[in-house]
Specification:
By secondary structure, this protein is mainly beta. The chain folds into 3 domains: 104 residues, Sandwich (Jelly Rolls); 181 residues, 3-Layer(aba) Sandwich (Lysozyme-like), CATH 3.40.80.10; 129 residues, Jelly Rolls, CATH 2.60.120. The protein contains 5 helices and 28 strands. A 5-stranded antiparallel beta sheet has the order 1-9-3-7-6, with no helix packed on it. Strand 4 and strand 5 form a beta hairpin. Bound molecules: zinc ion (2 copies). One zinc ion (ZN) binds next to loops.
């Protein structure tokens, strides 16, 4: 895991750092109080060892600035570890307060290329489109952040009685032709199909989180079709192989997107709160996925939750405390929940602060959702009040709207003592948007 000790930098007092020769970064490239380091290879995490007084540092990577929690270990070394959200990182910027005294710094570039998911929630084997001879889609793929999983049935009793893999694959191909030629869609509607033998077939082309056409809402939901007819008059049963395949696929997606298998949340395409794992009939006037499959959903959710074991806390707009001048907005379609608040920058202070109640102390991943827009502050200030200390970060609200933007993981104490929020700091002319906060216990 630990690939290289890339550098040992001797620094002088305050910010008068003379050289970064090991990184080949010229003094002119180093902004005041901000030091840029390039890694020798892609990395996922960065470990720091500091010598000197080192309060209130922050690090930028992944396009986000986040506080560095410097801890003293048993040997009185000051260390910190930060994680990026993917393995394609090549550089960081270290931010220091102006009065720091840094005497030496070691940086460990860590490439944790091992699977980021627990082995019990890895993606199950999937037969890809090539395996069943898919025709190319007649449209370009579009994407929404996956927040929900929809169960369907194909309402084809004969599919349930297929005896071989080839027959199932041919049935998937037939569904594609039906959806494209008969219904006039640009590709098969479902994201995945599960045959009675428990085999999982890739549906809609474009990859894992591509937007399908399956429940009338589509943006935000992964459509999984069970191949059979689980309703009168056929009343076929969702057999164990199909249940196990559905559980494996859903657990993988819940782990990847930090979806609470037992919870509910804002379903963007449906424009309402919806159970995170639902049946087609929950959002449309249809019998799908059939009474006998629908009846299995509660125990399926329980078994998926037992695999994923995440604890998700979502606080929408109304649960924040607002001070200063805020306006209610509803028009952005990539909002979380029915509305959001916005405030102008460069005027008197405005703050939106969530104070979640933590029932179990532990490491929590912190994510923020906002609707994006060209008038947003590209450097919106986020604040984390933790153990009596304020840490700040900056995010660009002009992009990455309509999804959970993960800022990092921090250890949180139990109780309602930690506050997370955002402020309208900045030059005149922008707006900041307060929409929703998510905490996921790791
Ligand atoms: Zn359906
Ligand atoms: Zn099969």
């Amino acid at each position: 895991m630990l690939l290289s000790l890339a550098l040992l930098v001797a620094a002088q007092n305050d910010c008068a750092v003379e050289t970064f020769s090991r990184e080949q970064i010229s003094r002119h490239a180093v902004a005041a109080n901000a030091y840029q380091f390039s890694a020798p290879q892609d990395f996922h995490s960065v470990g720091f060892i500091f010598e000197g007084e080192f309060p209130q540092a922050a690090v930028s990577l992944d396009g986000i600035k986040w506080p560095l929690e410097v801890a003293h270990d048993l040997n009185e070394m000051q260390t910190a570890l930060v994680h990026a959200s993917n393995n394609q990182q090549r550089a960081i910027t270290l931010h220091l307060p102006s009065a720091h005294k840094l005497t030496a710094l070691s940086i460990y570039w860590i490439n944790s290329a091992a699977p980021s998911l627990p082995s019990n929630a890895t993606k199950p084997p999937v037969y890809d489109r090539a395996s069943w001879g898919a025709n190319p889609p007649s449209c370009a793929p579009t994407y929404c952040a996956t927040t929900h999983i929809a169960m369907h049935h194909t309402a084809s009793a004969s599919e349930y009685n297929s005896s071989s893999w080839s027959q199932c694959a041919a049935n998937v191909k037939a569904s594609q032709i039906y959806h494209m030629a008969t219904r006039g869609w640009c590709d098969i509607g479902y994201n995945y199909l599960i045959c009675p033998h428990g085999d999982v077939f890739e549906g809609r082309g474009g990859g894992d989180d591509v937007r399908g056409a399956h429940d009338g809402s589509n943006c935000g939901s992964m459509g999984v079709a069970m191949m059979g007819y689980f309703h009168a008059p056929h009343n076929q049963l969702l057999n164990n192989a199909m249940q196990d395949a559905f559980i494996a696929l859903a657990a993988y997606k819940c782990e990847q997107q930090q979806i609470d298998a037992l919870g509910n949340s804002w379903y963007a395409g449906y424009a309402d709160i919806q159970q995170n794992i639902f049946g087609h009939r929950d959002v449309s006037s249809t019998a799908c996925p059939g009474d006998l499959a629908y009846a299995e959903l509660p125990q399926l959710r329980q078994r998926i939750a037992a695999i994923v074991q995440n604890e998700v806390i979502i606080l929408d707009t109304a649960l924040a405390t607002f001070t200063g001048n805020w306006n209610t907005g509803t028009t952005s379609t990539d909002k979380y929940g029915a509305d959001y608040r916005w405030a102008s920058t460069g005027v008197s202070p405005a703050r939106a602060i969530w104070t979640p109640t933590i029932t179990q102390a532990g490491d929590y991943q912190i994510s923020i959702w906002w609707p994006e827009g060209g008038n947003r502050n590209p450097s919106t200030t986020l604040g984390l009040m933790l153990n009596g200390r304020l840490h700040t970060a900056a995010v660009n609200q002009q992009m990455h709207g309509g999804q959970w933007n993960t800022l990092g993981s921090v250890p949180l104490p139990s109780g309602a003592t930690t506050s997370i929020g955002l402020a309208n700091n900045g030059p005149l002319g922008w707006v900041v948007v307060a929409d929703a906060l998510r905490l996921v216990r790791q």
